[in-house]
Write a structure and sequence with these properties.
This protein is mainly beta. The N and C termini lie far apart (110 Å). It is rod-shaped, with a radius of gyration of 34 Å. The longest helix has 17 residues. The protein has two domains: 82 residues, no CATH class; 51 residues, no CATH class. Strand 3 and strand 4 form a beta hairpin. It has one helix and 14 strands, in the order H-E-E-E-E-E-E-E-E-E-E-E-E-E-E.
Length: 154
């Protein structure tokens, strides 16, 4: 190999190692110390100390990509997954450290819910009862119209 060709080849290797074209570390690359060598993925940042791409602040390695946990979840480093953090029951959410019912629902027998159609909550019974002018027939509250001097009887 001729001397000019060898010098050109060495120059090309030097330029390539300095610019580090086409490298993205699946493993640490020992020969390149310049951050431009590394093409980090979406939501990743280059860590010059380790020479790896780490997840950006607020993002976590979830199923091989850097992502955020959904609202109501937190990242567990040990399990490397998002875990639900809502300590409240169904149809509730945490507000100022207290579990409250979702809008339009009330606590009936320790569960946030709403009364069925034509029923109203009766606190004395902690249950839903037929609303005024409605009568319970076969599990449904309906209006029964009786004639003068008549009373509905089951």
């Amino acid at each position: 190999m001729s001397k000019p060709l060898l010098l050109l080849l060495l120059l090309a290797v030097y330029v390539y190692s300095q610019n580090c074209h086409h490298c993205r570390p699946a493993v640490q690359i020992q020969s390149c110390n310049h951050p431009k060598c590394y093409r980090c993925g979406i939501n990743e940042v280059f860590n010059p100390t380790t020479r790896y791409c780490d997840c950006a602040q607020g993002f976590y390695p979830i199923n091989g990509v850097c992502a955020k946990c959904k609202k109501g979840y937190y990242y567990d480093d040990l399990q490397q997954t998002c875990i639900g953090s809502n300590p409240c029951s169904i149809n509730q959410y945490l507000l100022n450290g207290k579990c409250v019912c979702l809008p339009g629902l009330i606590v009936i027998q320790n569960i946030c819910q709403r009364c069925p159609e034509n029923q109203t909550y009766a606190p004395a019974y902690d249950a839903c009862r037929c609303s005024t002018n409605y009568t319970l027939v076969n599990g449904s509250c309906i209006i029964i119209k009786c004639g003068v001097n008549q009373v509905y009887s089951v």
